[in-house]
Design brief:
Layout: H1 2-14, E1 19-26, E2 29-35, H2 42-54, E3 60-63, E4 70-77
Parallel strand pairs: 2-3
Antiparallel strand pairs: 1-2, 1-4
């Protein structure tokens, strides 16, 4: 899992996705968490989910923020997660 974690971080750096990447463990099960910040735009989600598909990661999560579990390994990519304006979000009011 740690080798795949390193590949995930490298791929997200190459795509210039600002985020926090964690290898998280809950009840003995490890998974990848990519936190992009509140109201992140669809284009960021598309890059993360595309990277999951490319690396054949089925146990990944792309979210604004995540709590719970134990972080085994953490990396900040391109400055870490950001807070985007409401106009960038897929939620339009």
């Amino acid at each position: 899992m740690e080798k795949k974690f390193d590949k995930l971080v490298a791929a997200l750096e190459k795509k210039k996705v600002p985020c926090k990447v964690s290898l998280n463990e809950v009840n003995g099960k490890q998974r990848f968490i990519v936190e992009c910040g509140w109201d992140f735009p669809d284009r960021i989600a598309d890059k993360v989910l595309g990277t999951f598909r490319t690396l054949d990661i089925s146990d990944g999560c792309c979210c604004a923020e995540h709590g719970g579990g134990v972080n085994v390994k953490v990396e900040y990519v391109c400055g870490g997660k950001k807070r985007y304006g409401r106009t960038c979000s897929y939620i339009r009011r």
